[in-house]
Amino acid sequence: QVQLVESGGGLVQAGGSLRLSCAASGRTFSSYAMGWFRQAPGKERELVAAITNGGSTNYADSVKGRFTISRDNAKNTMYLQMNSLKPEDTAVYYCNGDVAGNYYWGGGTQVTVSS
Asked: Residue 1 pLDDT more than 90?
């Protein structure tokens, strides 16, 4: 069983920045493919950014150039640096881990961007 715990959400003004963290359990974190998803009220959960166990990344078009996903395998932690935040980035952000084909989710962290 893998546990994922997000932190770093909060309230920020448009144009501001936040850094989300996702702490993972397990001794083989470096082998996990990881991702950040978000879900706004009344909308479906969507992929924001993903990072493979080799460090390759991909982003949703809506966040390219503003968000950066990264991981620190020594700390079993994944990050999402969010800059130039917009009100439309307001959502609950979830950490996701793909562990040998099994998918795990964190409980989410709220990000609210005021205009």
From this structure: no
Q: In the structure, what pLDDT confidence band is assigned to residue 31 with cuts at 50, 70 and 90? A: confident
The sign one gets for the Cα dihedral 63, 67, 71, 75 is negative
Run of H or E residues at 96: strand 91-99
Q: What is the 3-state secondary structure (H, E, C) of 10-63?
A: EEEECCCCEEEEEEECCCCHHHCEEEEEEECCCCCCEEEEEECCCCCEEECCCC
pLDDT-based confidence at residue 5 (cuts at 50, 70, 90): very high
Which pair of structure tokens corresponds to residue 13?
């003004």
Do 38 and 93 form a contact (C-beta atoms < 8 A)?
A: yes
